[in-house]
DNA sequence: TTAATTTGTTAGTCATGCCTAACTTTTTTA
DNA sequence: TAAAAAAGTTAGGCATGACTAACAAATTAA
């Protein structure tokens, strides 16, 4: 699957649906993805997703039985991965060369990922000397769509006494990203779990000099590598 | 008009129409632009332009009387100039940093110019150290939309014996641009008019070692500064 | 200055992609 | 296991922006 002619005639919408499905299926925790779940993720009505899924099925990017769960074909997955590749390369460019901050890159990359030009993205990658991670710590798929996914350990899955290193954050929410930088967390920060409170699942963490209490929801969006 | 909030909620289509109108009105030779002319330029039906013009009139970007000629308001012109600015900055980036050739830049820039982010384009400009001309020799408007248009002298307007320097070419056609580079012409080439043939308006020109015959149509797309 | 031609307008259609409301199937749970 | 809840589907509508066909106005030419 090295060079497939660039006959990508998908609309922006079609691309958005395929990418969303990929993120729920492959990157998210859900083993099965349903119509309503996809609708909620994309913030559209279930009727809209149903319609689009029908279309993507005839185009052979999606498979599913009536009333059944959704899945991507190899083709569909390939398109989604290429979008993620474009998204992350653009984020890297904005962050490293154009003075964008952590929380500013996502929205503009959402637009840029739909630009259709194989050459553009491959040259951009070369220009940046083949970065492997985007500004949020996520791996960048290569030109063949190979995707070296690092198993994502959520900060919320650790226990008291554990020590870990921040390797990535979810980039879906600007407010979350602002919050992360405000309290002083960054990629590679070493974090110690001081306490996990049973009552509301909030977590007391220490990093550098700082001690903070974070919510379960916050910790679900922070990915780490366990050190101890 | 220095900073105007970025409340540009125009669709890609609306932007395309405004830009096209600007190019016909300000950059083209036509003093008056009509509906059918715009339709032909955009390769859509006159009914489509009529419809869109109606819409742009209610939005106060275009003015015209029924059955009358089209004109842009200050607002409409401002939007068009910003699109041209984005187009030319992207072309410059593709050409100077991403190994795109003369004839490859246009199509991708047509997509990139619709990306909505003031910061993106201003940072891109800063990153490239404020270039003043795009790869085809056209002036790049600044962030305030100031547009230092150089009077365009068509190569076809010169006479036998004249000597001129190539300062810009029209970037609308890939085939034309390929043709230009194939025969060896480039920005700054010094060109001497050897003969203008009355019969078919073809022109015999000399540049460097080369002597070529070019058609009137070709010469209409080449802009020069007269030297002698 | 009338007729022919060009230009502009209107009406009605179509595809895309969104919506709500109503309905059906599946899953959950009491 | 039957009722309730959740999930999925269908029908019908709307906005955008294209189209064709038919018609009206303005311009050009005979």
Automatic annotation (TrEMBL), chains A, B:
Span of domain HTH dtxR-type: 10-73
Species per Swiss-Prot/TrEMBL record: Aquimarina muelleri
Alphabetized UniProt keyword annotations: Activator, Cytoplasm, DNA-binding, Manganese, Repressor, Transcription, Transcription regulation
Alphabetized InterPro entries for the sequence: DtxR_MntR_Metal-Reg, Fe-transptr_FeoA-like, Fe_dep_repressor, Fe_dep_repressor_sf, FeoA_core_dom, HTH_DTXR, Iron_dep_repressor, WH-like_DNA-bd_sf
Record text on subunit structure and interactions: Homodimer.
Entry GO CC: cytoplasm
Source species, domain of life: Bacteria
Family named by the database record: Belongs to the DtxR/MntR family.
Chief location category: cytoplasm
SMART domains assigned: FeoA, HTH_DTXR
Cellular compartment(s): Cytoplasm
Gene3D superfamilies in alphabetical order: 2.30.30.90, Winged helix-like DNA-binding domain superfamily/Winged helix DNA-binding domain
Pfam families documented for this protein: Fe_dep_repr_C, Fe_dep_repress, FeoA
Protein function: In the presence of manganese, represses expression of mntH and mntS. Up-regulates expression of mntP.
Name of the featured protein: Transcriptional regulator MntR
Molecular function via GO: DNA binding; DNA-binding transcription factor activity; protein dimerization activity; transition metal ion binding
Coiled coil: none
């Amino acid at each position: 699957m090295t060079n497939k002619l660039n006959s990508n005639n998908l609309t922006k919408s079609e691309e958005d649906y395929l990418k969303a499905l990929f993120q729920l299926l492959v990157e998210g925790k859900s083993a099965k993805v349903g119509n309503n779940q996809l609708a909620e993720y994309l913030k559209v009505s279930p009727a809209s997703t149903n319609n689009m899924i029908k279309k993507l099925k005839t185009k052979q990017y999606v498979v599913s039985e009536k009333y059944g769960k959704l899945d991507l074909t190899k083709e569909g997955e390939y398109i989604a991965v290429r979008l993620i590749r474009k998204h992350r390369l653009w984020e890297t460019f904005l962050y490293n060369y154009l003075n964008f901050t952590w929380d500013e890159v996502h929205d503009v990359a959402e637009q840029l990922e739909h630009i259709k030009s194989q050459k553009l993205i491959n040259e951009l990658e070369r220009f940046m000397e083949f970065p492997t991670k985007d500004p949020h710590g996520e791996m960048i798929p290569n030109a063949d769509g190979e995707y070296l996914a690092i198993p994502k350990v959520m900060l919320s899955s650790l226990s008291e006494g554990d020590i870990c290193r921040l390797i990535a954050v979810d980039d879906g929410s600007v407010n979350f990203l602002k919050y992360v930088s405000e309290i002083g967390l960054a990629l590679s920060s070493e974090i110690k779990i001081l306490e996990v409170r049973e009552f509301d699942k909030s977590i007391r963490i220490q990093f550098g000099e700082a001690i903070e209490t974070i919510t379960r929801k916050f910790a679900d969006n922070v990915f780490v590598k366990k050190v101890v």
